[in-house]
UniProtKB/TrEMBL annotation, chain A:
Record's keyword terms, sorted: FAD, Flavoprotein, Oxidoreductase
All copies of domain Acyl-CoA dehydrogenase/oxidase C-terminal, residue ranges: 202-323
Native organism: Lentzea waywayandensis
Family annotation (InterPro entries): Acyl-CoA_Oxase/DH_mid-dom_sf, AcylCo_DH-like_C, AcylCo_DH/oxidase_C, AcylCoA_DH/ox_N, AcylCoA_DH/ox_N_sf, AcylCoA_DH/oxidase_NM_dom_sf
Protein name: Acyl-CoA dehydrogenase
Any Pfam family matching the protein: Acyl-CoA_dh_N
Lineage: Bacteria, Bacillati, Actinomycetota, Actinomycetes, Pseudonocardiales
One function term, GO molecular function aspect: acyl-CoA dehydrogenase activity
Homology family: Belongs to the acyl-CoA dehydrogenase family.
From TrEMBL, chain B:
Source species, domain of life: Bacteria
Names of the cofactor(s): FAD
Presence of keyword Flavoprotein: yes
GO molecular function, one term: oxidoreductase activity, acting on the CH-CH group of donors
Keywords: FAD, Flavoprotein, Oxidoreductase
Domain Acyl-CoA oxidase/dehydrogenase middle: 122-215
Protein name per the record: Acyl-CoA dehydrogenase
Domain Acyl-CoA dehydrogenase/oxidase C-terminal residue range list: 227-359
Keyword check for Flavoprotein: yes
Protein family: Belongs to the acyl-CoA dehydrogenase family.
Domain Acyl-CoA dehydrogenase/oxidase N-terminal: 10-118
Entry-linked InterPro entries: Acyl-CoA_Oxase/DH_mid-dom (IPR006091), Acyl-CoA_Oxase/DH_mid-dom_sf (IPR046373), AcylCo_DH-like_C (IPR036250), AcylCo_DH/oxidase_C (IPR009075), AcylCoA_DH/ox_N (IPR013786), AcylCoA_DH/ox_N_sf (IPR037069), AcylCoA_DH/oxidase_NM_dom_sf (IPR009100), Mycobact_Acyl-CoA_DH (IPR052161)
Pfam families: Acyl-CoA_dh_1, Acyl-CoA_dh_M, Acyl-CoA_dh_N
């Protein structure tokens, strides 16, 4: 990490420590804390070049911020807006630049692309179809849609567009179902499959942050919980399970950091999803009864692990893709 | 993280690849007398191209290669199907200790002949009553005129059946357990040494017991300070557990072979395990390449040890399940993989190290 990256990470971490209250955030109508989002934008975590009014941060910096948001499970439009911004940057022209400027100013953006096999059909720049699990899909002011061939901008406030908030097991992630019925669209340019790899890289960074924090919380708990007159973390049966969690977190971090192409992105998606799920499941077991309560955060990590494993395609889907590649 | 290679590295990679393609040929098992000598000749051939110890200083036979070049060398080496390294104990375990704690005289005397395979080293750590609990070892070194007399018994000494020399820890006192130990080098053909080979599960003597009965060792073969042996040995224990002993090239090569095997023997029920093992090898590779930026050492090496040893078992078990029988080409690797979670500190010990030293859990 460069000194600048370290400073950015520390800034995000201390912001979240002071201001992130996920229990309060998920009770708000939009499911996230607008003040925290504004402060994140001020720190400059979106990967938008200065020529479009952004901070000039790169994807590496955004991934650090996503890792921090993953640690605290803070609901945030950063993931959706980052993926939308990277899709626009793949075009990098006047039209996309106009949208990038709005994102840099804090407008929430999202990209709906058919990662779950849904079919969006385009006829004469009008779109039809249903896309499920669109990140911040009901909140986004800027709605990008791909049919797998082109990238379109769709005005979300037209009659041909309906968006339904879709509550899932993971309350810390805002998802919506997007219905397009002869919706007028502006064709921005060709769709780059590379955007999927960017999305997987971003998601895996978030997963690694969450998994690392789940382990830290477990270690802290077992150091303080006393049974048989000793902290339970001194018992080898528990130590070895936490050691295995550590091995998973560190190797997942390496896989997440190493994404450069289609294969490494799929590896990261599979590996980080499975690692996070195992770590979160162990978090529950090692906490014992307290983790079975609503009050304790362990279930939030477990549900995020499940949800993020399914987002953008389950590990099984990406394994199938990898099988074709290797 | 960018894993693309610069021009100089690509050139080095090409040189290694073409040299190996021209020279690699199958050898007999290194755990037979004849095969051992074939492997020694192979080490000499490697050394003649300065390829036996690429990361070492040139004065000792190396090329001063960076960690990146070493990783690239290892990938090419394993992908080519080149023979196992009979010099492994010396170049990956003793040599780092000499670089850190030896004298110039020791390095000049020992390293060049190690690099050429002229002297092959065995390790002599474990004893019948000191395995995972190495600090309970009992073999002694008693001071005498001009040196030391070794007495006791070592066991599970890899390569000792045919090797020339060995390195190990001996109790010189005062103090108990970790205190009062000294790191010593000795000649396996000295008077008073009896080597009794032990057959491994493949039927060949890959390790041996060593009985020591007043074996003389001159003062110049003490590594580090007398009484400081535990620190000397442990400061480089990470080399055995970490990536030097088991470079990712070994596993990516095995994973590629596994994928090939699947193509020839497709069994849909095993597809996920094949891909999982392949992903594991890739993850390990990425993890070690990550070490280029921040070196893995000390307790972090325990993380890699647990990972690679259990990955190796998974790779081989998946191959066996695909084949439905123990087939040539995988059987020996499988049997060898079973020792991975045991040697260099059992994985249970590694998990203690991770829990106590990395996670800070109480003892």
């Amino acid at each position: 990490m460069t000194p600048e990256q370290l400073a950015l990470r520390d800034a995000v971490r201390s912001l979240l420590a002071k201001h992130s209250d996920i229990r309060a955030a998920i009770e708000t109508p939009h499911g996230y804390d607008k003040d925290v989002w504004a402060r994140l934008c001020d720190i400059g975590v979106l990967p938008i070049p200065e020529r479009y009014g952004g901070s000039g941060a790169g994807l590496a910096e955004t991934r650090l911020a996503l890792e921090e948001l993953g640690r605290t499970l803070t609901p945030s439009p950063l993931l959706a807006s980052t993926i939308a911004a990277k899709a626009l940057l793949s075009l990098d022209d006047e039209q996309s630049g106009r949208l990038l400027r709005r994102i840099a100013d804090g407008a929430i953006a999202t990209l709906a692309w058919p990662w779950d096999g849904a079919e969006i059909s385009a006829v004469n720049d009008h779109l039809d179809g249903v896309q499920r699990y669109v990140l911040d899909g009901d909140l986004a002011e800027i709605l990008l849609v791909s049919d797998g061939v082109h990238l379109y901008e769709v005005d979300p406030d037209q009659p041909g567009v309906s968006r339904d908030h879709t509550p899932t097991m993971d309350q810390t992630r805002r998802l919506a179902t997007l219905h397009l019925t002869n919706a007028a669209a502006t064709r921005l340019g060709p769709w780059s499959p590379r955007i999927r790899d960017v999305a997987l890289a971003c998601l895996s960074a978030e997963q690694v942050g969450a998994a690392a924090r789940a382990l830290e919380l477990t270690v802290e708990y077992t150091k303080t919980r006393v049974q048989f007159g000793k902290p339970i973390g001194s018992f080898q049966a528990l130590k070895h399970r936490m050691a295995d969690m550590h091995v998973l977190v560190e190797t997942a971090r390496s896989a997440a950091l190493a994404v450069t192409d289609e294969v490494s992105a799929a590896v990261a998606k599979v590996y980080c999803s499975e690692a996070f799920f195992k770590v979160a499941a162990e978090m529950v077991q090692l906490h014992g009864g307290i983790a079975i309560t609503w009050e304790h955060d362990a279930h939030l990590y477990l549900k995020r692990a499940h949800g993020s494993g399914q987002l953008f395609g389950s590990p099984a889907v990406h394994l199938e893709r990898l099988r074709a590649k290797i | 993280m960018d894993l693309s290679l610069d021009a100089q590295t690509v050139e080095f990679q090409a040189e290694v690849r073409s040299w190996l393609a021209a020279h690699v040929r199958p050898l007999s098992s290194m755990n037979t007398a004849a095969g051992f000598e074939e492997h020694r000749s192979w080490e000499r051939l490697l050394a003649s191209e300065r390829l036996s110890v690429v990361s070492w200083p040139s004065s000792y036979g190396g090329r001063e290669a960076s960690l990146l070049h070493w990783l690239v060398f290892e990938e090419e080496y394993h992908a080519s199907g080149a023979p196992g390294r009979v010099s492994q104990n010396g170049i990956f375990l003793l040599a780092p200790t000499l670089f850190a704690h030896g004298t110039d005289e020791q390095r000049a005397r020992i390293l060049p002949s190690m690099a050429r395979g002229d002297e092959v080293w065995a390790q002599a750590w474990s004893e019948p009553e000191a395995g995972s609990d190495l600090a309970s070892l009992r073999s002694t070194a008693v001071w005498c005129d001009g040196g030391w007399l070794l007495r006791g018994q070592k066991t599970w000494s890899s390569r000792a059946a045919f090797a020339d020399r060995a390195f190990g820890l001996f109790r010189t006192g005062p103090g108990e357990r970790h205190r009062g130990l000294t790191y010593l080098l000795f000649d396996l053909r000295s008077e008073g040494v009896t080597v009794r080979p032990i057959d491994q599960l493949d039927g060949e003597p890959g390790f041996a017991e060593i009985f020591l009965d007043d074996v003389f060792v001159p003062d110049r073969d003490v590594v580090g300070e007398v009484g400081d042996g535990w620190r000397v040995a442990m400061s480089t224990a990470g080399n055995e557990r970490g990536l030097t002993l088991r470079s990712p090239g070994r596993f990516t090569a095995a994973a590629s072979r596994l994928v090939e095997l699947y193509r020839k023997n497709p069994d849909p029920a095993l597809r996920d395990r094949v891909v999982d093992a392949w992903i594991g090898a890739q993850a390990y590779r990425l993890h070690t390449f990550g070490a280029l930026a921040s070196p893995l050492s000390g307790p972090a090496a325990s993380v890699t040890k647990v990972f690679w040893s259990e990955l190796d078992v998974a790779l081989h078990e998946t191959a066996l399940d695909l084949l439905g029988e123990v087939a040539p080409g995988w059987r020996d690797g499988w049997l060898f993989s079973l020792s991975g979670p045991i040697y260099a500190g059992t994985n249970e010990i590694q998990r203690n190290v991770i829990a106590e030293r990395l996670l800070g859990l109480p003892r």
